[in-house]
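User: I'm putting together a small comparison set for a docking exercise, and I want a reference complex before I start. The sequence is below, and the ligand is DLL. Could you produce the 3D structure with the ligand included, as C-alpha cells?
Assistant: Of course. I'll restate your input first, then give the C-alpha cells for the complex.
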Amino acid sequence: MNGRTHDGYLFQPQVETMPRDQLAGLQLEKLQAMVAHAYDNVAHYRRSFDAAGVTPDDLKSLADLARFPFTVKNDLRDNYPFGMFAVPQSEVLRVHASSGTTGKPTVVGYTAADLDVWSDLMARSMACAGARPGDMVHNAYGYGLFTGGLGAHYGGERLGCTVTPASGGFTERQIVLMQDFGARVLCATPSYALNIAEVAESEGADIKGGTLAVGIFGAEPWSEAMRQQLDERLGIKAVDIYGLSEIIGPGVAAECAEARAGLHGWEDCFLFEVIDPQTGDVLPMGETGELVITTLAKWAQPMIRYRTRDITRLTDEPCVCGRTHLRILRITGRNDDMLIIRGVNVYPSQVEAVLLDRPRIEPHYQLVIQREGTMDTMTVEVEAHPGVAVDDYDEIAQDVEHHIRARIGVTCRAVVLSPGEVPRSQGKAVRVRDLREQPG
Ligand code: DLL
C-alpha cells in the first residue's frame, strides 16, 4: 500500500513511519533469528562466537549485540569464494563481487528472498529521494559485478518506473537518451553526474532546462559543495544514497527529498551501531565513529556487526518527512581513505569542499601523495576553468594552498592543470594517487 508524508511519497508507509519502540521490537525479533541462522550455518560465525564465548541464546536485548564479535572484510576474503554463505549454493540466485585493489575479490550472495528485499529497499530509497511511479529513470551506475547498476535497475522497476539501463561511459550518447526519453531521475555516482553536466555544457545540450528533476547519487564520498554544483548545473535536487556490497548493495540508507539532511537507514532490515574504531566500544547516539551494520533480512549471507570503515554519526531526531528511521549523517570518508599529512588527518572530501568554494577552478581534482624523507606530502592537482589565462595559474595555486591550510590545517602544494587534464570518472572517482612505495 502506498501513501504520503506531508509532501512526499512513501513506498512502504507502515514500515517507514513505524514508531521507534515498535521498530526496536521488530529488530530484536529479526536479529535473534539472523544471529541463530549465522551461527547454525556458517563455520566462520560458529568459530568466532565460540572464541568470544557467546551463543545466539545470549541475545536477550538489542544491547546484548555489543558482546558479539565484529566481522571484517578480510573474513570474506579468507572465506573466498562461498565460505560465508549460510545456505547451499543452489539456493543462491545471484552473486556480486567487489574487485578490491589487492588479493581476491569479496563475493556476496543473494537468495530469492534477499533479492526481493533488496528491490523493495531500493524502491523505498528511490521514492524517499523523490522518484515516483511512472518516472523515466536514467541509470548510469555501472552494470556488472558492482551492485550499483542492477540495484538501481530492479529498485526502479519495483517502484513502477521505466528504467534505461545506460551503465557508465559513452557520455554524449547518454545525454541524447536522457533528453529524448525525458528522463526525470538520474542515478549515477556524483563524480560521473558532474562529468555528464560538463559534457552537456560543452555540447550546448540543455539538460538543465529539461525534464531532469532528481539525482540519486552515491557509491563514493561527496560534499555539500558538490551537491550545490550538481543542483545548479543539472537543474535538479541531488540526493545522497548509501550502501555497500557486503551488506546488500545500494539502498541501505537514503536521504529524503524533503530534508536532504542525512540518510534514513532502513532499520527494519539493518541494525546500525557507531563504534570507536580504536577500542571497538559502541558510542552513544550522535558521536562520530565507524559505522557497523548487522543485516536483519539477508539469508544467503548474514553479516553480523560488519565494520564498514565508513566514518559518520547517527541521529534519531525526528525528520520533517515523517519517517521514523534514524539518519546516518553524510559519510565524509573511510578509515582507510584517511591521509595523514604532516601529522594532520585529512579526508579527500574535506579538500573537495575547499576546492569547490574557490573561483576559477573546476570541481575535478586528484590528490597525489608522496614520501619525502620520513614525511608524507600532498599535491593537490586541480583544473582551471576554461578561459582562465595560463599566467594566472600560479596565483590560483597559491590561493588553493592558502585556503586548504586555513580550513583543514594542512600544508600542501597545489598545481593548476589546463581544462580536461584531470581524468574524468565513469563510476567511482579516483581521488588519490598514492606514489609512496608500498611495503613488501
Ligand atoms: O558503492 C553500493 C552503492 C551503489 C551505493 C550505488 C550507492 C549507490 P561498494 O562498491 O561495495 O558498494 O562500496 C561501498 O562505498 O563502504 C562507502 O565507503 C562508499 N559509499 C557508498 N555510498 C556512499 C555515500 C556501493 N553515499 C563503499 N557516501 C562504502 C559516501 C559511500 N560513501
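Residues 98, 141, 146-148, 218-221, 240-245, 249-250, 308, 310, 331, 334 surround DLL (CB under 6 Å). The chain has two domains: 1-335, 338-434.
User: Thanks, that's exactly what I needed.
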